Amino acid sequence: MAFAVIVFGLLLSYSPKIVSHFTKKSETLVIAGKLGAEPEVLINIYKEIIEDQSDLKVEVKSNFGKTSFLYQALKSGDIDIYPEFTGTITSSLLTSKTDLSTNPKKVYLDAKNGIAKQDNLVLLKPFAYQNTYALAVPEELAKEKGLTKISDLQAYQGQLKAGFTLEFKDRADGYKGLQSKYGLTLPVSTMEPALRYQAIKANDIQITDAYSTDAELKKYHLKVLEDDKHLFPPYQDAPLMKKALIQKHPELEKILNQLAGKITEIQMQDMNYQVSVEGKEAGAVAHDFLVKEGLIKK
């Protein structure tokens, strides 16, 4: 009986340590994304590489909202990380505007330094691809007329019709920029974004504006023309988070920076296609990408 009392007493004295050992849970980070297939793929890439290379757990919230909503959610602590475009930070989030640049490195540094100073947020290194404005034409037309860059369109101004969104038509870095920088004057019809691709398929138009990683570019067999005079601003995606999170979990910087310089426009376009057209799960697409890149094991 005395022995049992001693054993019970010893267990009681160590019980906080025992309980804490068995009930300790890994911290869970919340990573959110904007609307659409692309942000959903990216946040799943973040999730899988973080969980693979650390003790942290990740909850993803896809289609969480638009830029301003995620930005405020990050600052308020409702989410921990979200992918943001360098060009969006410099043009929309910074209250002190920087000079507009088409140099991706400069835009990244302006975004990184500006958001750190303004909000104490950390922007890690960006992916290679840019989801910026683009001009696209049917692949067959590009082959037939030797179209590889935007300036090639000058020889066909009277022959090819363009279909642009209303926003692109009125933007300085849209059709107005094409007129001033490239000297292009095209017959232009304005239309809803989804209708552009139907119109180009029906040959009602031959040129359209797009985003360079749109799944529809692959679906409708369109070729993106090189922006050889650098009209369109750089929009590279990179992980954005609070400085306090990096200070608490410095391993995150090393883990996520392995993604720096990864993902080309074609790769991102293909992953978007797999999700939005083929109906694949974003998590599965993200996993396949990480395995192919040798960043995680199968």
SSE topology sketch:
Layout: H1 2-23, E1 28-34, H2 37-53, E2 57-65, H3 67-76, E3 81-85, H4 86-93, H5 104-119, E4 121-123, E5 133-138, H6 139-145, E6 162-164, H7 166-170, H8 175-182, E7 188-190, H9 193-201, E8 207-211, H10 215-219, E9 222-225, E10 237-242, H11 243-248, H12 251-256, H13 265-276, H14 282-292
Parallel strand pairs: 1-2, 6-7, 6-8
Antiparallel strand pairs: 3-10, 4-10, 5-8, 5-9
Helix pairs in contact: 2-14, 4-5
Characterization of the model:
The protein is 48% helix and 17% strand. With 298 residues, the protein is an alpha/beta fold. The protein has two domains: 28-130 and 235-293, D-Maltodextrin-Binding Protein, domain 2 (3-Layer(aba) Sandwich); 133-225, D-Maltodextrin-Binding Protein, domain 2 (3-Layer(aba) Sandwich). The strands form three sheets. It has a five-stranded mixed sheet. Strands 3-10-4 form a three-stranded antiparallel sheet. Strands 1-2 form a two-stranded parallel ribbon. Helix 2 (37-53) links the parallel strand 1 (28-34) and strand 2 (57-65). Helix 2 (37-53) crosses helix 14 and helix 4 crosses helix 5 (104-119). The longest helix has 22 residues, at 2-23. The radius of gyration is 24 Å and the shape is globular. Residues 28-290 form the ABC-type glycine betaine transport system substrate-binding domain. It comes from Streptococcus pseudoporcinus. This is Glycine betaine ABC transporter.
CATH superfamily of the largest domain: Periplasmic binding protein-like II
Q: Radius of gyration in whole Å, from Cα?
A: 24 Å
> DSSP strand (E) fraction?
15-25%
* Strand order, sheet with most strands: 7-6-8-5-9
Approximate helicity band: 40-55%
Domain ABC-type glycine betaine transport system substrate-binding: 28-290
Protein name: Glycine betaine ABC transporter
GO molecular function: transmembrane transporter activity
GO cellular component, one term: ATP-binding cassette (ABC) transporter complex
